[in-house]
Amino acid sequence: xxxxxxxxxxxxxxxxxxxxxxxxxxxxxxxxxxxxxxxxxxxxxxxxxxxxxxxxxxxxxxxxxxxxxxxxxxxxxxxxxxxxxxxxxxxxxxxxxxxxxxxxxxxxxxxxxxxxxxxxxxxxxxxxxxxxxxxxxxxxxxxxxxxxxxxxxxxxxxxxxxxxxxxxxxxxxxxxxxxxxxxxxxxxxxxxxxxxxxxxxxxxxxxxxxxxxxxxxxxxxxxxxxxxxxxxxxxxxxxxxxxxxxxxxxxxxxxxxxxxxxxxxxxxxxxxxxxxx
Length: 277
Description:
This protein is 38% helix and 23% strand. The protein is an alpha/beta fold. The strands form 3 sheets. Strands 6-7-8-3-9-10 form a 6-stranded mixed β-sheet, with helices on both faces. A 4-stranded antiparallel β-sheet has the order 2-1-4-5, covered by helices on one side. Strands 11-12 form a two-stranded antiparallel sheet. Helix 4 packs across helix 5, helix 4 runs parallel beside helix 6 and helix 5 crosses helix 6.
């Protein structure tokens, strides 16, 4: 005979699914009367990577700025692990920003500080580490992003791709639960874009980060995404698994994928456009 399950086991079995770490619900925002996002909903579970796709100007980065509290929605709810953030004061948002960090397009590094000092900055701000511990963590983070050869260099001397790698290291120094990436492959060559994609994927696998990546680069998204949010004219045209997005017959999605299938030659000249392999 089988033993009857205990009350504790029944409770675990019947427990509700884990609440998403990020939950956008019917969010709208307009600038100067012009709708930017309209009734947009999506969620991200812990450890997942969401890629937000769409053409320029459809509000992809606006969603990240609302998550950070830099913008407030006109309507809708934004919840972080069940906590509504749209009504939080700036002080309340500072606590949220200890758990969620953002890697900006320009890296947002301090120009007057070396790579080492940039990565050390958030560690020193914590105030609970001695200098030996700070330097040990800095070396570990710089090694993680492959920037060991530029530790004493100022950001102005770095390429765009290197700046973003260092910005990721500095973001990780804050020990966040969620990392937001705003167009990480813009203005970098395909080799650097692949390196950044490998880095973001490795961080997910090793450290279990939850990530949201805003990008227009479908190749990049294919390598990273568990979930896809596709924005068209400010609305969520698709939200769901990557496989479903790739198979969608929505005409706007098919057009986006078709245009992305073409790449310019590496050098200008008479070479024709070539399709993605």
